[in-house]
Amino acid sequence: MFAGRRSRTVDRSESDREKIRITREEFNTYWRLLQYVRPYTKWMVVSIIALIFSVGLGLILPLVIRNLVDLIFVENDLQRLNQLAIGLFAVFILQSIASFIHQLSLAFVGENAVVDIRVKVFGHLHSLSLRFFGDYRTGEIVSRITNDTSLLQSAITDDLVALLRQGLTLIGAAILLFWLDWRLTVIILLGIPFITLTMVWLGRKIRKESKAVQDALAKSASVVEESAAAVRIVKSFAREQYEIQRFSRAVRETYAAAMRRAKIGAVLGPIIGFMAFASITITLWFGAYEVIQGQLTAGELVAYLIYTMMVATPIASLAGLYARFQGAIGATERLFDLLDELPDIVSEPGAPVLPSLTGEVRFEDVSFTYSKDIPILRDVSFHAQPGQVVALVGPSGAGKSTLISLIPRFWDVVAGRVMVDGHDIRDIDLKSLRDQIGIVPQETILFSDSVFANIRYGNLDATQEEIYEAAAAANAHDFIINDLPNGYETEVGERGVKLSGGQRQRVAIARAILKNPRILILDEATSSLDSESESLVQEALEHLMEGRTSFVIAHRLSTIINADWVLVLNEGRLVEQGTHQSLLETPGGLYARLYEMQFGAPEGEGIQLLLNER
Ligand code: ADP
Fold it and tell me: Distance from the CA of 402 to the CA of which of 28, 240, 285, 458 falls in 20 to 30 A?
């Protein structure tokens, strides 16, 4: 789960203190949530005024009824009776209008605030570094933005409406109760502390379970996300049942937590209801006694009873409301945890924007590690001249992908520095750095959009002409026009599944060409294409690399032979570097040895090792 910042304590005095702290935290969380309502203060005020109006009118009703009853039974004044009945209607209508305005304006505020929160969380996600996305599962993140925000939505719309309405009714009715008969009211009030304590106690339990439900939901969402994304693997291993079991386990966890929550909820309502209605019975008994004694009129008793119910109903539902608030606070905390995740790769304040690059890249004694104890790269130094093609070779796990991911600063080095055109990349504006770097990964990733939109992703300001040119340079234009059903407007499907492997790669290359970066990072695809597509892709890549400093994780011998410089990595160390020819001439060198093996062994085992192929 998202890193909890609240440290849980065990010993008794500590845990007492903790209780108070959580309450304050709850308040802070809710306060922070309400900051999202601020831009809509005007509508909030409208809503509250309408609410006060509506509740006020509701409170007048029993008084009108009191007069009605006393007129019928005591004074027999028919004319006044008619006037009062018409008055009653008028009050009802006004109250309904006020209630309508109140509900609608508050919904407007709440819905808008939730849109703002969703967009903010999504924006924040994109400011986070790769480390965050490695640590948290996609499904969980999705669940935060969807499930958790819907809980918030009810916390700032429905629940807040109910809280305000019931709170005001409660206060108003209680004041009127004192005014009508204070002795009776004191008796009823004696029950309130019991009700409140029960409510708080069970509410806390519900909050805990709500959090468990949301966690379990997030977990099952990530199972769905993962197995849908890896559906080919699931099918090829015939592991459908396995996935179904994995999912049902996760869903059962949700079920178990939801049932625990439901059980607490189910006892909460009746307990509170019982307490409230017990008070009414006492009122009826004591009130009737006072009427017989002549201390209260019949109309007053009727009004009194209606006010008691007006007090009891909010108290009974405040319990449920409190529980829902607790649930929403849990969800809010988790969203804020996400918002509080700090991006670890950021531009320094005022970092200068990188001017147009020549594309010189220099690694100076670079060491790197993902987690503290396992060094991944050690003292790597090399120098790539502008426009050079640099091939990276070495066995799988040697650190090639890690090395190239340091250039766009996906990670920060642990020691040494990475320089482009003489600037340490940590000292310059991050966006201006990444704007000048293009990446074509081994597994082509396209968005489920049209071919046109996928290419345009490389430069959102590009004209149609430029997009067609980029596609042509990537050997993609012809197949887009001739082979795809709707040409450039053809939808590529999720991750581009509707295109062939070679077509996907060429679209991705067109996208990179359109971006026109000075530095290019390329991970050659290992998946074999038929020889025609292979040569089309190869040609497209050559166009792409023209005039750019290119780093290629090489899987083809021809790439290495044609490269200007070759870096040979082994276990995180740069063991050799030079041109293909000079490396071959290094007696006893790893590259020369493995290359020799290719000619020695019929399987070509050596060069395959070097090229990271199996
Ligand atoms: P290569 O590209 O040469 O196959 P990599 O750079 O992918 O090698 O991996 C080098 C080492 O770093 C491997 O041991 C791998 O397990 C580890 N590694 C790669 N990515 C991560 C990551 N995000 N978090 C932790 N370790 C990683």
Answer: 458
